[in-house]
From TrEMBL:
GO BP terms, alphabetized: DNA transposition
GO molecular function annotations of the record: DNA binding; transposase activity
Location of the Transposase IS200-like domain: 5-119
Protein name: Transposase
Annotated InterPro entries: Transposase_17, Transposase_17_sf
Transmembrane segments: none
Gene3D superfamilies linked: Transposase IS200-like
Length: 151
């Protein structure tokens, strides 16, 4: 039987729903660690997870045994449930249903890690919406701006 060899890097990003309940600074490190465990449980390899109070970025490798949709569903479902156990503050927390996912070449993995590490600084100059639109345009992905963010 032939072995399937692959290493696919993906950059996943998603936003909180409705801007109602933001992720508190003091909970981020634990949340990112928890998400790393979820990613490992899907046979993927987390490389870098970071974000701001209203959105996250994940760089990981994608297992040949899981779809991007399933990986994202697992991360969002489990992390949302977990956040709700931390504090009543998160009782209405939810992630937006959509997400952005972009392929990352091996040659720019370090650049992507740096980009994800510097999210707080980056978003002093650019909104998440503008950032997402820039990614969509760079990757030549058709989109309808009316559907990028749930109301």
């Amino acid at each position: 039987m032939a072995q399937s060899l692959s290493k696919i890097y993906i950059h996943l990003t998603f936003h909180i729903k409705d801007n109602q309940v933001h992720i508190r600074q003091e909970d981020k490190k634990r949340l990112f660690a928890y998400m790393g465990t979820i990613i490992k449980d899907t046979e993927c390899l987390p490389i870098k997870i970071n974000g701001t109070s209203d959105h996250l970025h994940v760089l990981c490798t994608l297992s040949r045994n899981v779809t991007m949709a399933k990986l994202t569903e697992e991360i969002k479902r489990h992390s949302s449930r977990w956040l709700k156990t931390l504090s009543p503050y998160y009782s209405k927390f939810a992630w937006q249903t959509g997400y952005g996912v972009f392929s990352v070449s091996q040659s720019v993995v370090d650049k992507t890690i740096s980009y994800i590490e510097n999210q707080e600084f980056h978003h002093q100059r650019m909104s998440y919406k503008d950032e997402l639109i820039a990614f969509l345009e760079e990757y030549q992905i058709d989109y309808d701006e009316r559907y990028l963010f749930e109301k």
